[in-house]
Amino acid sequence: MSLCFAAASAAQIPLHLLTPDALESFLSDLPQAEARWVRASGFAAQPGTVCLLPGGEGVKAALAGLGSDRDRRRSRFGLGAVRTALPDGCYRLETDLTGDALDEQLLGWLLAGYRFDTYAASAPVKAQLVAPDHVDAARLVAIAEGEALTRDLINTPANDMGPEELEAAARALAEAHGADISVTVGEALLSDGFPMIHAVGRASPRAPRLIDMRWGARGPVLTLVGKGVCFDTGGLNIKPGGSMGLMKKDMGGAATVLGLAKMIMALDLPLQLRVLIPAVENAVSGAAFRPQDILTSRKGLTVEINNTDAEGRLVLADALALADETPPDLLISMATLTGAARVAVGPDLAPFYATTEADAAALKAAAGRVADPVWQMPYWEPYEKMIEPGIADLDNAPSGGFAGSITAALFLRRFVTGTPRYMHFDIYGWNPTAAPARPKGGVGQGARAILDALSELLAL
């Protein structure tokens, strides 16, 4: 992978970023022969297109299309598409873009260097770029590397990414950044008070566990909780084959919080970070938990199981209860939790819930700045009765099929009673079709928006 900027060198090819509106003005400043060359090539500054101006020793300059304002609203990271279209070389950016708009394009360039090549060789992207002097290149590289970690974890198949391997990834991250980590495994989950994590994971020969990582000794406290269901068969309510095909990504919440944690630690943000990951495999065996079972959670709330395929909220509930026992300044959970969220907003938007409107506003503003789209959903209290079955305190899978993402969020909120500021993300974690800087496969959602918003959320 190539997730860094090139060192400054004497041989740099100017790379001009152009929109269709600016093209004619740019051409008018070129020598007539070069302008004729560009026009004859058919270059019209459309998204991802490239035109090379020949020089005496090869390429004199490169023109790259970003498209119109409408094009850029429809597809972000245009410079990522440009990178894959350029020949080998070291480029120097020539553009009027500044601030957030420039950072978006530079991050797109970096992310276009991502390759998941663990199992098959993949041609590297050879085009390199010297970072402009006035950008925070180290921050952009840290973000790209955090996103790459998230993608790698999601893309790895479940035979190589079970609870133990997810723990190993967390331990490697902790070691790299001087964080402390402890893990509760198997039967110890029962004695240590995590009965629902144990119940969901006990059918698998791969022992369930709770990963607890801590970093930082100063500043406000941020706790991240990520769903780590490394594969989800659906349990005894087994999924049909078509619905099971992507279930290696059901640990996308864990992958995303680990990627975000990597960004935070690499940037040495002045905060105290805690990461909690319940890591399980929801398997089928004689030990599997059953429909109509009633489980008692760490918080003491009882939960009637009406669908063993609604397991993510169960493992998150025990982890959230633990986080809530020592309330942080801000608590965030991330999970590939419901198909209802995908039906509502599709794969590109990350739905989120927030207990305070100020936090929601800060997150939405940050998402716009860093091109990491989110969509606020409501904690709609009239639906609370839908998760109250009568025979137990809570129902893990209300009947009727309505408002599935909202009822799941309401369920989780029941386990956060001492922490005033709580945000929950119901992400997809997967890019179904290739897009600039985002190949088909695992993808982080919401992490960059959270990172950008932290300065306001935690007054850093």
UniProtKB/TrEMBL annotation:
Keywords: Aminopeptidase, Hydrolase, Manganese, Protease. It comes from the Bacteria. This is Leucyl aminopeptidase. Signal peptide: none annotated. It comes from Celeribacter indicus. GO terms for molecular function: manganese ion binding; metalloaminopeptidase activity. GO terms for biological process: proteolysis. The lineage of its organism: Bacteria, Pseudomonadati, Pseudomonadota, Alphaproteobacteria, Rhodobacterales. SUPFAM superfamilies: Zn-dependent exopeptidases (SSF53187). Belongs to the peptidase M17 family.
